[in-house]
Amino acid sequence: VMCRPERTADGIEVCYNYFEDGRQDRAGYSSRSGNIYSGRLGWRQFYQVMAAAYVLESLYLAQPSAAWLNGAWVTNEKYTGWINQLFDAHFSRGNRDPWPLFALLHEQGEPDLNLYDWLVWVQDFVGLIGYYEIRSVLSGTTVAAAEFSPLLAKLGLTEHPPKGEAHKLDFFDCVERVHAAVMQYHQRSRKDQKEQLSRIVALLRSDELQTEANTLDCDDGEEEHLKANALDCDDGEEHLKAIGFFAGLSDAPAYVLKVVSEIYGVEFWPLWDRVKDVAGRRFYTEEAAALPQVEPVSTMDFLQISADDWMLFAGIGEKERFSPALQEWFATLSQRYHTILCKGISGQGMGEAQAFEWIVNLLEYAEQHYYQIYPFAEFLSETQAHLSDRQFWAVWKLFEELMHDPKMKADARVIFAAEPLNDLLSRNGFRESQTSDGVKTERHGALRPMRRLKREWELLPTAERNNAARVTLRRYMALLANGRLRRSVFGF
Fold this sequence. Notes:
Blueprint: E1 6-8, E2 11-14, H1 17-20, E3 27-30, E4 36-38, H2 45-60, E5 67-69, E6 72-74, H3 77-87, H4 99-107, H5 125-139, H6 141-154, H7 166-188, H8 193-205, H9 208-213, H10 220-230, H11 236-250, H12 253-264, H13 268-273, H14 283-289, H15 299-303, H16 324-343, H17 352-369, H18 377-385, H19 390-403, H20 406-412, H21 421-427, E7 430-435, E8 438-443, H22 462-465, H23 468-481, H24 483-490
Antiparallel strand pairs: 1-2, 2-3, 3-4, 5-6, 7-8
Helix pairs in contact: 2-3, 5-6, 5-12, 7-11, 7-12, 8-11, 16-19, 17-19, 19-23
């Protein structure tokens, strides 16, 4: 049987079998320890929900953070959108810059930072700069430069963006000029290499770098004048000023230090350690803070579930969201249900033990001919408490009729290995007999091995698992479990 989320003394337990359509372990949340637990993560809806839980945690952390699950960054905005919808929150996308995470993983001793897919962060210009710095550190500035134009194209930008986005145009121009300025300073400065490095580090740590970055606020003519003259000098110390100007304009301190490490032939990370406490994005801090909230995403959209398959949780006021075909199916079920009530139900007078055995036989038959058609625990308990009630008998009788519909049986065969029906019934300990009420299913002898799937359940194509027969029976079980919806269709 399947269960809805249940409160426990220590938190809550959940079972996702209905939406996962698979036999998964129970999972839950412990309010005492703050832990979420599960025997198996899965890869469908439960995976998406767990990924969203990690994203929620990352949105509250002050340090650089992002969700990392099953070897991949979780960067899709849909997770934040669903969180906004669930909690009526107003989160923006959160961290968009991969560089702080890259640097943090290095500090924590991550042995191979190449194993991470940093490219997924290139979703806007902030992500592009961070990725550009990462590629420069991992593979060199030449490799990173070769990737720049394709990365711009991925964002729908060009190397000549419209006016008002000049900093995006200037980024690649500036990193090239940084490289030239560092090279010129290295060649022309009269200081020894150790002193040159110390002066570059001191420059990158200084407040003047912020002042240089603010040249973006000047008019176009003045900015072009500064660019034209920054490298037009003979004194090495003037080139140091040029490094500061273009470093501030590029807003990529890690890239600047990588250029320095390449030209001076020194390790990058010791240089980074000398500036990391003050290095950071300047132009994009306010831009990130001003980002609009991510638009809310409904649970159905987040889990990619149709309104028809959401019927387990649907209220009466949501019936109009169901498809016309489903509403017509409800009308047909109601008509068939009342027909069963009117003509009487054979066997209704049997004892409670025998009656419940009949229901168990139906469920075993469903398992062997349709696979994983489970009732919800609460409705099964409700049935046990009302075994003498004609209304409960009628809905189970209707379930039996649905299972024995020839078209339903034909549709369900797509998931099973080919096997003659009579041999199958005999092997599984069932026999069918024709009665005045239609086909009757009985079990004789001990239950034997069930009908064989043609391959492992998880390996079957989704379209075959979701064949029309299984979808119908699973929805029927959801209808019975949703008391409000059941009352609107069957009247009880």
